[in-house]
Amino acid sequence: MTPFLIVERDGAVLTARLNRPETRNALTEPAHMQEIEELCRAIRTDRSVKVLVLTGEGSAFCAGGNVKDMQQRGGIFAGSPFEVRESYRNTIQRIPLALYELDVPVIAAVNGAAIGAGLDLACMCDIRIASDKALFAESFVKVGIVPGDGGAWLLPRVIGMPRASLMAFTGDTIDAARALEYGLVAEVVSAHGLLAHAQALAQRIAGNPSHALRLTKRLLREGQHMRLDSLLELSAAFQALSHHTEDHAEAVNALLDKRAPRYTGR
């Protein structure tokens, strides 16, 4: 069977492509979601990986749930209400737990439509860069369902509650320019140059020490639900660890010597 994810590596940067262009990279099959979870698990234990770029093959980033499967009660939508609930909990809801909590920075290169769960998937990433052809919608209400994969938690944290409410209650689609205005994406670039731009950004990020990237991301994540005093305690602990790494010493020495650093991941 053709993998759902095509994964390529360039130094410390991984690029993963959702590879079901015939369904606009819809998220319905449990095996596809398991691939995403397994990739995250592999990255967590591979300290040589510093950045992940996520994009889609074909014309879409991710079209969310497969509407035909919804109609036919197939894939994760099959079975009784209890079975559907369990299916969500054990398949698509494992993606935000794995991807959002991934230790390394994740860049979404949104090449086309990011609809429903596809928009939520983009919101699980740390940075979103959009093609000028990209479209975005929190469209669950349009098909009579609710955000089942964490969108009601993710989207307000990215664009704020008022705009998240507008998108979730209308289900309307916005273009890349409006997404930039909303703060949903950091940049909009030409469709032709999107992936190269995202990968160049990933390489810039990967030029920094691995431990500092992973610990900084953890602080950013924890800071969203911790009190300031608690975050300061965690920051002090992470800082103490960082000061005793070889890469920190190398960074300081390289800065003072006015040369490029040579990091080893130690």
Q: Describe it for me?
A:
- The chain has 266 residues and is of the alpha/beta class.
- The protein has helices at 30-45, 67-72, 81-90, 94-99, 117-123, 151-159, 161-170, 176-182, 194-206, 210-222, 228-243, 246-257, and strands at 5-10, 13-18, 51-56, 60-62, 106-110, 113-115, 127-131, 135-137, 173-175, 187-189.
- A six-stranded mixed beta sheet has the order 1-2-3-5-7-10, with helices on both faces. A four-stranded mixed beta sheet has the order 4-6-8-9.
- The chain has two domains: 5-206, 2-enoyl-CoA Hydratase, Chain A, domain 1; 210-257.
Distance between the termini: 39 Å
User: What are the secondary-structure elements, in order, as H or E?
Assistant: EEHEEHHHEEHEEHHEHEHHHH
Counting DSSP E segments of at least 2 residues, the number of strands comes to 10
Could you state the CATH homologous superfamily of the largest domain?
2-enoyl-CoA Hydratase, Chain A, domain 1
The share of residues in extended strands comes to 15-25%
**How would you describe the shape?**
globular
On the 0-100 scale, what is the average pLDDT? 95
Radius of gyration: 19 Å
Q: What's the CATH C level of the largest domain?
A: Alpha Beta
Q: What is the count of DSSP helices, taking H or I runs of 4+ residues?
A: 12
Q: Tell me roughly what share of residues is in helical segments.
A: 40-55%
Low-confidence stretches: none
Q: What is the architecture of the largest domain at the second tier of CATH?
A: Alpha-Beta Complex
Query: How many separate structural domains?
Result: 2
The third-level CATH topology of the largest domain is 2-enoyl-CoA Hydratase, Chain A, domain 1
Question: Structural class of the helices, strands and pairings?
Answer: alpha/beta
In the sheet with the most strands, the strands line up as 1-2-3-5-7-10
Major beta sheet summary: 6 strands, mixed
